Amino acid sequence: MRHKSFEEMTCAIAQTLNQVGEWWSLLLIRDALHGLTRFDEFQQSMGISPNSLTRRLSELCDRGLLERRRYQERPPRDEYVLTDRGRDLRPVIEALGAWGRRHVTGKKAAVRLRDDETGAEVDPVLVDRHTGRRLDGEGFHYAATRVAHPVKRSRLPKV
Fold this sequence. Notes:
two-stranded antiparallel ribbon, mainly alpha, globular
């Protein structure tokens, strides 16, 4: 099912959703972050039809999130490898997973991110790069820029 395009919106979240597409796409990025690269691996992991998987992998390649690489000539076989742009979605995927473990699955998860040095499970938080303060606490507010929708400019303080 195709959704409305967010191309005309000036919101970074809407533009990002336009790039990553449907929820299947985020699951493909998740699986690529987990090390899966081959068509059959993605298909087995997600139980998606071959036609749907082909279309979604092509879209992610077209958007620069995955790169198609030939690993076998006869018969021709490709693998799908994350680009830098695709790897940059890791914090987003981890934040969604943390939220899901906290609010949906009761801390259950099939795959967990672990620290290479300590082996400890990672508990991701979003912090401000300049102050190191967590963004889920007090002391932050949204402010409208000049390109914000008029309804938001009327509601939010201006930058």
